[in-house]
């Protein structure tokens, strides 16, 4: 196992998540794409901790921050989805294009 | 040797189930594919001897995805996955951007001279993490706590349909609640 292997794995996860976040129409599916991208951060941070700076716990703290960001993203995403669905019956991004420039 | 095999197994599993998230017909299946992807990714973290964080990710993702499955079933268009489902826009563009990002990141990963290892992992990484969070990284922990609290408040405010301020006015001083339908005892 090397740092490069882990980082390429993380890049693959990130790209899949990016594809999902860009292409999906359903708001909840976009959130799944975002979660995959944050998951890539978790893998990359753990790999950096182990292969670059294991003496300090900085990488582990970054993993913890990413895990929290994931939980916050899911909670707020579903709250926003619930709010807009209740108000306007919208659950697709194309139907909520008010701010489109 | 078995580390290597386990890593490739977990990496292939995580990438494969990650792709499956956006290819299966039902959003419930997509949720559990995402759960499988997270568990495989946590497997690679466990290989780095981060036992606590790996187990934390596994437990948290199981909880999160089971809750997510409920919301998925609430909002999905194709509940049982009985019909082929495709809800994408600009598929070609997204594939090109994602593939381009992957190619760029991989090129950078392979070309950059990464620093060599500085120090050795502590015998107990969990203890090191705990000491960092309660010592030099205390600010991170405090900010995370505040962010989680703000999230709780904000998500409840956003998801509430009609709260007491809608019913009793901004100063909560209305005699009668402003309800669309009259009801209740002695009202």
What is the percentage of strand-forming residues of chain B? under 5%
Helix and strand run of chain B: HHHHHHH
Radius of gyration of chain B: 24 Å
Task: Assign the CATH class of chain A.
Answer: Mainly Alpha
Outline the structure in words:
The complex is a heterodimer of chains A (101) and B (187). Chain A is mostly helical and 101 residues long. Chain A is 76% helix and 0% strand. Chain A is elongated and about 50 Å long. The model of chain A has no long low-confidence stretch (mean pLDDT 90). Chain B has 187 residues and is mostly helical. Chain B is 66% helix and 0% strand. Chain B has 7 helices and no strands. The mean pLDDT of chain B is 88. At the A-B interface, α1, α2 and α3 of A face α1, α2, α3, α4 and α5 of B.
Compact overview of the structure:
With 101 residues, chain A is mainly α. Chain A has helices at residues 3-23, 27-51, 58-88.
Feature tags:
heterodimer, A: 101 residues, mainly alpha, 3 helices, 0% strand, elongated, B: 187 residues, 2 domains, extended, EC 7.1.1.- (chain A), NUOK/Mnh_C1-like (chain A), transmembrane (chain A), membrane (chain A), cell membrane (chain A)
């Amino acid at each position: 196992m090397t740092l490069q292997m882990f980082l390429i794995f993380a890049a693959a996860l990130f790209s899949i998540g990016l594809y999902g976040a860009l292409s999906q129409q359903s708001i909840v599916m976009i959130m799944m794409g975002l979660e995959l991208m944050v998951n890539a951060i978790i893998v990359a941070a753990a790999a950096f901790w182990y292969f670059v700076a294991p003496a300090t716990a900085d990488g582990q703290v970054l993993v913890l921050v990413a895990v929290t960001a994931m939980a916050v993203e899911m909670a707020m995403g579903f709250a926003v989805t619930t709010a807009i669905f209740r108000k306007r019956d919208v659950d697709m991004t194309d139907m909520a294009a008010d701010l489109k420039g | 040797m078995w580390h290597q095999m386990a890593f490739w197994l977990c990496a292939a599993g995580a990438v494969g189930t990650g792709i499956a998230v956006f290819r299966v017909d039902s959003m419930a299946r997509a949720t559990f594919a995402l759960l499988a992807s997270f568990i495989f990714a946590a497997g690679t973290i466990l290989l780095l001897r981060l036992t606590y964080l790996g187990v934390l990710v596994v437990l948290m993702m199981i909880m999160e995805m089971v809750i997510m499955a409920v919301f998925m079933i609430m909002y999905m268009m194709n509940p049982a996955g009985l019909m082929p489902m495709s809800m994408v826009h600009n598929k070609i563009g997204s594939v090109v951007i994602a593939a381009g990002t992957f190619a760029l990141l991989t090129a950078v990963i392979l070309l950059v001279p990464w620093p060599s290892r500085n120090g050795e992992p502590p015998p107990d990484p969990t203890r090191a993490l705990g000491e960092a969070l309660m010592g030099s990284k205390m600010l991170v922990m405090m900010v995370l706590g505040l962010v989680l609290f703000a999230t709780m408040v904000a998500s409840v405010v956003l998801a509430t349909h009609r709260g007491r301020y809608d019913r009793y006015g901004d100063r909560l001083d209305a005699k009668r609640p402003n309800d669309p339908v009259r009801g209740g005892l002695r009202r």
